[in-house]
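Session log. Operator J.P. requested a structure for one protein chain; no other inputs attached. Running the standard single-chain path with token output.
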Amino acid sequence: MTRPVAHAGTRETWLSSNRRAFAAALLLPVLLAAGSGGLLLAVDPLPWRIAAGVVGVLSLLVIIPLALLAQQPRLAYHDWHLLVYLGAARPFRLPVDVVEVFFLGQAPSMVSPEGDPFDDQGPTTSTIVVRLAEKADEWQKRDVRPMLGHWCEGYITLRGTWCEPITEDLVRTLNHRLVEVKREQKSLGLGEAS
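Structure written below.
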């Protein structure tokens, strides 16, 4: 499906988050928060109420950032910039000129059946890899949330665990949109379209 080129001022989502995965990740903290709220109302001894309050607050400290991440797309386009959402408070705004191509890849899912989220020997997931122009020295590396992706040596890897389903059609659509945006940019005499 071809999406229209976004008008100035509007953000166009190119890659959505996987809300089902975030919902699963939120299940335990939400249950803990609800249980601690119930204990606060049901128990009388002060130490139990304090413990329930602490569990509730800690649960909220997990729920809020995960809920915010679930609402963000992973990739979006706005005013000649690719917006990359990999866990920072704000998206990274790459000039579309420096984005060369999107392609499929594979990487550790960072979700282990044994519960170790940093087990790189566990299951793998499909990824979308964004190759950036070598000339864009300032965009070669960024610190991002490892569970969401990796950004090093001019390649941005977005883990499929936390994205909408990654397919060959999706990658073709991303590349098609990139070409459309660069053509429009070139026709308007803006930037270096390639």
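Operator note: The first helix runs from residue 19 to 42.
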